[in-house]
């Protein structure tokens, strides 16, 4: 394998694009996931990935093979994402845009309104393909959840980079210092602050990703939401349930606030059909508004976070994300 990698590197250095594609192919998906964790946006992650691969192609002559190809690519990707977080103007928040529905007063206005979901179809084979190093503290599946990714977005960029490289990917401190052109002491200090900041942001509830309990809760949610059954929906929620809807900044914290939000949507007579999918290793549903005609139009995507006590978070994204999940913009009315 090592001999083949060296051969590919030599061929790529000579200008062989096919050899370069073969060299980086095993790492494309995991690099995309890494960029998504850093940026919180599926579209921005794709842009950062393309920028990473272009930079790697252009800088291949400077790759001295003191590290693996994978580590070299992570170094480039991390620094491209750092540049993006420092310089990019994030997407603007949007005003309430649900026709015929007056929004209830939000608990607060969220900061991470550029958040986008990541399709599970693109995670297949990624979370287990490259086991994290011995320094990792988080399961790969946990580190792709919306709650985890959202919490990262409010940390300083360099702290995010250090935490992901150390606690998610499991690189040693000295390796991270070299990747970020800094000292081991600086990495250790940034990691300590990042861990503290992340714990302040994250929920203490244990997720039930992939469990039969998760599937059952998601199915009950879909049935109740389609029927506009508020009482059943209420029974599925945890006391501290959190509802958000990026790129609109409206956020609702707690059962009462979320009930008010759901009632404002469903009490208008709007009825939906939900099509199951998965995002961020969590249950998700494409939402289609039933009308009087022959077509139901897509209005958004719900992503649920479940715990052993119920649904602890609901995130609603706009309908522009539906094609990422192989879902159509509209479906025949049923």
From TrEMBL:
Report the record's Gene Ontology biological process terms.
DNA-templated transcription initiation
Name all RNA polymerase sigma-70 region domain ranges: 23-91
Report keywords, A-Z: Sigma factor, Transcription, Transcription regulation
Q: Which residues form the RNA polymerase sigma factor 70 region 4 type domain?
A: 147-196
Return the Pfam families for the record: Sigma70_r2, Sigma70_r4_2
The keyword Transcription is assigned to this record: yes
MF terms from GO for this chain are: DNA binding; sigma factor activity
Q: How does it assemble?
A: Interacts transiently with the RNA polymerase catalytic core formed by RpoA, RpoB, RpoC and RpoZ (2 alpha, 1 beta, 1 beta' and 1 omega subunit) to form the RNA polymerase holoenzyme that can initiate transcription.
What NCBIfam families does the record point to?
A: PRK08241.1 (NF006089), sigma70-ECF (TIGR02937), SigX5 (TIGR02960)
What is stated as this protein's family in its record? Belongs to the sigma-70 factor family. ECF subfamily.
Name of the protein described by the UniProt record: RNA polymerase, sigma-24 subunit, ECF subfamily
